[in-house]
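This week, think about what follows.
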Amino acid sequence: MEAFGDSLKEATSSMRILEPTWMYKELTNAMQKQQEKIESLKTGEVKSSGLFTRWGRRSCPGSTELVYEGFAGGGHYNEKGASSNYICLPHDPIYDDDGRNAGSVSKVYGAEYQTSSATFHTSLHDEDVPCAVCRVVGRNVVMIPARNACYSGWHTEYSGYLMSEHYSHFGNKELVCMDGIPEKAEGSNAGNQDGALLFFVQAICGSLKCPPYSENKALTCVVCSK
């Protein structure tokens, strides 16, 4: 009986010695599994996305995902406090349902092509401008001005022409890349309603060197991804 008691004590003592080692191994295994999950996520299970607006079109190019389509808009061309950017307004706005009124405001208008003095796309003059917000998975996106082709290693999403507000107007605007084959917005009205306007862009020689740039030529643009 005494021998059995001694054996039990020895076994219990051994278990107490092994317990910290066992707990350490379990903790190590758990940490290793978590690290493997993190590495797995890094290698492709979660991919970054690039977003861009395709101005002048109602759809996205190639295999890119359409987030939404809408109407190009922005501040009025002749208002000093007009917003300085163009925005893509969706076809299906949602308002708060309690009838809130904005009071003193900044104003947003639809955008129109201004192409009557150009040598191309003149049929679109005063037509309303569509837009589409597009998502490309696993790639970054950049708009390159003054080129209609991407640099080597980059994929062309679309190309076209730089457009912006007229240089003499109060309401200045950013430069955007208008698709090279633009179309009218859904329900476009060809009447002269003004609002946010879009003119082609040309280079001015001086501080901008000519060559390589040249005056009296519409500046191109391209949207690229990689």
The chain has one helix and ten strands. The two ends are 79 Å apart (CA to CA). The longest strand covers residues 65-74. Strands lie at 49-55, 65-74, 87-90, 109-113, 130-137, 141-145, 155-164, 176-179, 196-200, 220-225.
